[in-house]
Amino acid sequence: MPTHRTPTFAFMVADELPELADMMRRSFLAEFRRAEAAGEAELAPYMSSDTFFHRWLFGCVDIDRYTIRDGGQAIVGGMVVWRFEDAYNVLGLLFIDPDWQDAGVGRRAWQFLEATYPDTARWSLRTPTWSGKNRYFYERVCGFQRVGESQGQAEYEKVPRVLQ
Where are the beta strands (DSSP E) in the chain? Predict the structure, then answer.
């Protein structure tokens, strides 16, 4: 088991994409197996880096991609934020290497995003319905509220307290 240090966050660079894409696949595959999900088709969107690292959502005005490192050293995860007008942001992706999960890295990543985007009026995200661990994290750790479900995805929103 690796020694965990305080995570650091920086904009992704192209050279990191192969390692991040592999880590994303391992992260979602580990949770998929743990959840004993029904079919491989439910996992397919998380097996392609093009799905999240390169895609822009319709109406998105900017996209920020972050690499998460363990104390500035090893890459341990990644995040993608799609930004829209009217202070609306979508957390398109947040994943942590399976070897680094359950050590507070995800919580610190979310805290970093909230501090980085303090003027956000509304956050939203989607996560697989088969991932109880992800749903728990977003609801209990990050404070998101489940607002729906569509095509095997649980839909969440969060309005920051300062704006409520």
Answer: 7-11, 62-70, 75-84, 88-96, 122-128, 145-150, 153-158
Q: State the Cα–Cα distance between residues 107 and 45, nearest whole angstrom.
A: 24
Mean pLDDT, the chain, as a whole number? 86
Between 39 and 114, where is the model more confident? 114
**Does the pLDDT at position 140 exceed 90?**
yes
pTM: 0.86
Q: How many CB atoms lie within 10 A of CB 153?
A: 17
**Half-sphere exposure (Cβ direction) of 27: Cα atoms closer than 13 Å:** 26
Cα distances (angstroms) measured from residue 25 to each of 41, 45, 59, 91, 106? 14, 10, 27, 18, 17
